[in-house]
Amino acid sequence: MVRVVLAARVGPSLLRSCDPPVSRVFRDGYGSGPAAVRFAVPPSRRSEASLSSMPSRTVPDDDGAGAAGTGLPATGPGSAAPLGRRVAAYLVDSVVSALIAALFVPDPVDVRRGILTLGVFVLQYLLLGSLTGQTIGMRLLGLRMVRPAEPGTPPGFLAMAIRTALLVLLVPAVVMDRDNRGLHDRAAQVVVVRDR
Prior knowledge:
single chain, mainly alpha, 2 domains, two-stranded antiparallel sheet, 9 helices
């Protein structure tokens, strides 16, 4: 794809000398094989060629449903929750935890307040998450945690302990797959879905 645009600017002789060595997996995109024929642009139109005029490739879903391999619907209640609502629920849970901690330790610079905030956050996820499948933020935003293997039941204490321990680290929560499932969700075998 970049080859077409470069050919219009630097000329074919210079471009041939600049071809990077690539593995067989990526060779189609650099001008040999079937992709070169598909993306070929006549010499008279090379200056007009752009990436937007080239055909795009789409990756099909595994089963046409929502989260791959979970058996969830693609939309509506029970479908995988969007990232924005998940982040908003996390922020609500954090603020609620901080407000509860502020009731007991009013000094904002006291280290105990930060520790208590984290403790309230962990308890909220462990207790509410394992018993109901929802935290306060999830309840307000219409989300629920479920185990795909056992639909309709809360995740359970062990799954929530694993998920909460990883969620506190934040790094696994930031690393997500295409279904918006973080590493903490995968490790606990939990999916966050829309409740309404």
